[in-house]
Amino acid sequence: MKNLFFKYSFFGLVLLMSPKIEAQNKAEKTDELSIYRTTPLKTHDLIHTKLEVSFDYGKRYLYGKEWITLKPHFYETDSLKLDAKGMDFKEIAIIDGKKSIPLQYKYDNEELSIALNRTYKSTEKYTIYINYTAKPAELKSKAGESITNSNGLYFINPDGKGDKPTQIWTQGETEASSCWFPTIDKPNQKTTSEIAITVEAKYTTLSNGKLTSQKVNKDGTRTDIWKMEQPNAPYLFMMAVGDFKIYKDSYNGKEVSYYLEPKYAPYAKQIFYKTPDMMNFYSKMLGVEYPWAKYAQIVVKDYFGGAMENTSATVHGEYVQKTERELLDDNQESTIAHELFHQWFGDYVTAESWSNLTMNESFATFGEVLWHGHDAGQDGEDRSRYEKLQNYLRSQKNGDSPILARFHYNNADDMFDNISYSKGSIILYAMKNQMGDEAFFKGLNHYLTTNAYKSGEPHQLRLSMEEVTGKDWLPYFDQWYYNAGSPILDVTYKYANGKIIITISQSQDSVVQTFTLPLKVDFYVNGTKIRKDILITKREQSFSFDLPSKPEFVDLDPDKILVGEVNVDKKTAVDYLFQYKNAPSYYNRIEAIKFASKDRSQESQLILLEGLKDPQEDLRVLSIKAIDLNEKQTKDQVLKTLLDIAKNDKKTIARANAIVKLASTGDASYKALMEESIKEQSYNVIAAGITGLTKYAPAEADKALASLDDDTQKHVTPLMKRFSSQK
């Protein structure tokens, strides 16, 4: 699931949701958090789930018939417990050949306890028939901070009033599928499925697996049957019903389809066009072909979870759905990549418990990073990784943060945070760096193939890595998966008598572990880069190296794999300028620009001037916002570069910020630029043009805004407020 913990905006990194570390640390002393969250006990194994469902839109009911096939996991048993929330039952029976034998049961509105007709052994399968009514709208939702509703099945505008489309869709994570069909609603269960959905004939349906038949009924309805021949977890079951237009693509002979509201259908290919390339990239990288019969992506109304990686059928919130004009300014490529990577890590192999959510979400977030590297090069990969690091660092205090594999939590929803997502992803990246790409991806392949269609936890990943490399990776996993926090390194450099001494102190809170950190150091000496290895094992440690002369610059952790912070003592603008020009990783460039944004020295102005030409648009935007237009020595060059960005930059957000910056000069010669910008297609550029025009002729700006069509005004007005608030 892609929960919107943060939104990356070129107006800055805005944290919409992050773990409340202090509150959580305090809460960990309560009784609830003293409970060790074990992996759910397997008394039975799900084998096959067959459903026939129809809907009452007026009552918001689902009418269901279910045939659920199970077997005892190991010990023989004469009873069965199923998760079933807020349902009415008409009949519960066991199917014995052609006979249907009624069964006794007890029900507490959440759990269905069934007395079987006899004792069954682990070698015996049996099938239970259940005729039921699900009433999800009447349930009291157990909402969390990230998954804000847990009713499982949702009727959107069922009365058909107004312009909002009428839809039905499901959201099963974490354990909400049992709001619309009885099951063992645990992530360590897997079952094949067949779902027959009866709807008004005008509607389109989507579910897991293949659409195997469509039957038109005499009452104006149609029954679609979707079959999932490979086992998957109950929380990954999905249905969607509504007026959707389907764009069909393909990958390696498999259908790849995009379901959108009719008005967005013309833009389906533009929104999702990279999907087949992503499928090819991930399949080859992992050595495991995309494992399902098809891949569909559907955009639904009023979706609250960001997006959800249901097996073979991802659900997206409507923010993914954009027109051609909106796509000029922004897309949701990261979300699309994230949910697709889940088809391997989360669906093909599923976290065996919510305590082990890292096996789903850390990997999907890691998958985003890898895709950006493949699609946009190392700089794009490093930018994505830097964003994950910053998200994590906002979620810690003095190095203190929750454990990645957490077995104590109040609610499973607590696990969906920047620890499971961002921190976990950069821990995987650091492992890849230490292990080497070939060994790392061979280890992932071993994990996936060994645990295919089953569930997994970090220890199984560790064993796969050890099988491949022959090395004991328990220290790494113990430090990063089963202990909390992250390091804060305070660093000083001293050069004398042909030696440089690096002193490193781990200054994270005393309650946080002392880390073992294998890192590299680059010394820039007389135009040459000299690389050395160090191993940090203590709270304070010094390292000495012979160098022919004092280095112009020292780059600790040049690959920037550290899951933590580095603070270098007495680092100056001169150091940052050298860093930007000579050690130009994305990390080094953005850190130099961030320093220069707060510093008024000549060297910082030169950093920002370089930043205006940076290949990454977010760094150009940071530089545009911070650069001093009144610095005499650079003024002419700055204005020339800004004008070029305003007219020609390929990224509309950079153009827009340059337009607003030029308007801040008050120079009348730029008024024509503002007027021309208002004629553009990009909402960003139009908003910047009107915002800039208010500096010259407020009445003309008001008139220009009023002349725009309603759709353009709707998009431009909030953007103008943002641009106006910029200093």
Automatic annotation (TrEMBL):
Q: Which reaction does it catalyse?
A: Release of an N-terminal amino acid, Xaa-|-Yaa- from a peptide, amide or arylamide. Xaa is preferably Ala, but may be most amino acids including Pro (slow action). When a terminal hydrophobic residue is followed by a prolyl residue, the two may be released as an intact Xaa-Pro dipeptide
Q: Does the keyword NADP apply?
A: no
Q: Which Pfam families match?
A: Peptidase_M1, Peptidase_M1_N
* Cofactor field: Zn(2+)
User: Where does the record locate the signal sequence feature?
Assistant: 1-23
Listed CDD domains:
M1_APN_like
Keywords attached to this entry:
Aminopeptidase, Hydrolase, Metal-binding, Metalloprotease, Protease, Signal, Zinc
Task: Cite the Aminopeptidase N-like N-terminal domain residue spans from the record.
Answer: 48-236
Q: What is its EC number?
A: 3.4.11.2
Query: What InterPro entries does the record point to?
Result: Aminopeptidase_N-like_N (IPR045357), Aminopeptidase_N-like_N_sf (IPR042097), ARM-like (IPR011989), ARM-type_fold (IPR016024), Peptidase_M1 (IPR001930), Peptidase_M1_aminopeptidases (IPR050344), Peptidase_M1_dom (IPR014782), Peptidase_M4/M1_CTD_sf (IPR027268)
Domain Peptidase M1 membrane alanine aminopeptidase: start-end pairs: 275-480
* UniProt similarity note: Belongs to the peptidase M1 family.
Query: What is the protein named?
Result: Aminopeptidase N
The scientific name of the source species is: Flavobacterium humidisoli
User: Which taxonomic lineage does the organism of this UniProt entry have?
Assistant: Bacteria, Pseudomonadati, Bacteroidota, Flavobacteriia, Flavobacteriales
